[in-house]
Description:
Layout: E1 5-11, H1 28-34, E2 37-44, E3 47-50, E4 56-57, H2 58-71, E5 85-90, E6 97-103, E7 106-111, E8 120-123, H3 124-145, H4 153-161
Antiparallel strand pairs: 1-2, 2-3, 2-4, 5-6, 6-7, 7-8
Amino acid sequence: xxxxxxxGYSLSNRFPDPPQTDYRGASVHAxxxxxxxxxxxxxxxxxxxxxxxxxxxxxxFAWALCDIVEELDRDPDGRRAARVQSRxxxxxxxxxxxxxARRFNWVEVTATWLPDEAPAVIRHSDLRREARDxxxxxxxxxxxxxxxxADNPNIWSLQGRFRRI
Length: 165
């Protein structure tokens, strides 16, 4: 059975970055929480988990998703682990979150703001690959819009930590 995963984002016109932003020198905090706001979506075989708030820090979402996927892989039994390992990706401006629950090699993703939506079910290895691709693609888009961002040492560390698979 093939599972298709799609991750995407759109930047908000309502919450633009300040025009005086120094992307080359932006701190980790600014990169993660203050810049590049918009909406994100995750679609896995028809289960669509999207935000529609306009203020989600898109780079932070991609960064946190990569962190979570790695944290879900810390069980010594790996894909043979029967116990559920879970992590939450919380949204700081409200109480909503995405919950990632891994059992064996499968990850169920649920969104608290969509309680009636069926969970997205994804192979862990596919989620890892897609999360890293999403991060690298998002960075490439942001570099096109803000070339100085590519010279930020915090971004260099991020790119090196979560290379494409």
